[in-house]
Amino acid sequence: VQLQASGGGSVQAGGSLRLSCAASGRSFRTAAVGWFRQAPGMERKFVAVMNRSGGKFYADSVKGRVTISRDNAKNTVTLEMDSLRPEDTAVYYCAVGPSVISSTVTSQSAYAYWGQGTQVTVSS
User: Fold this and answer.
1) From CA 99, how far away is CA 31, in angstroms rounded?
2) In what side-by-side order are the strands of the sheet with 76-81?
3) Which residues, other chains included, contact 72 with Cβ-Cβ below 8 Å and sequence gap of 6+?
4) pLDDT digit string (tens) for 49-63?
5) Looking at the predicted structure, is the pLDDT value of residue 25 above 90?
6) Among 1, 45, 70, 101, which lies 20 to 30 A Cα-Cα from 58?
7) Nearest-angstrom CA–CA distance, 73 and 124
8) pLDDT tens-digit map of 75-100
9) Distance from C-alpha of 97 to C-alpha of 47, rounded to nearest angstrom
10) DSSP H helical ranges for the chain
């Protein structure tokens, strides 16, 4: 599976961005799809995941401000981000995990395929 993330950019605090991730090479219909982010000098952290049944789980830091969705027919996953804060600044990565289960959704090692990342910069 090849993943291509897009939609990043620079916004002011309080603004919104919509990140997209397109998968090719294989359908991810039966896999969990997630987003992680990595701020400068920090480790990569979990942001959101949507499992194959449609269940969603979010990191506490983004809950209420971020919505993940997927379109299995188009093999795409989207991350809508509102009320952005400077601390949301990071490179955002999409990931696909065919073997992700509820106890591993926040673990990077559970995801087999990764996109190249897209930069999100939020200024105060």
Assistant:
1) 7
2) 2-6, 17-24, 76-81, 66-71
3) 27, 28, 29
4) 999 889 999 999 999
5) no
6) 1
7) 38
8) 999 999 999 999 999 999 999 998 77
9) 14
10) none
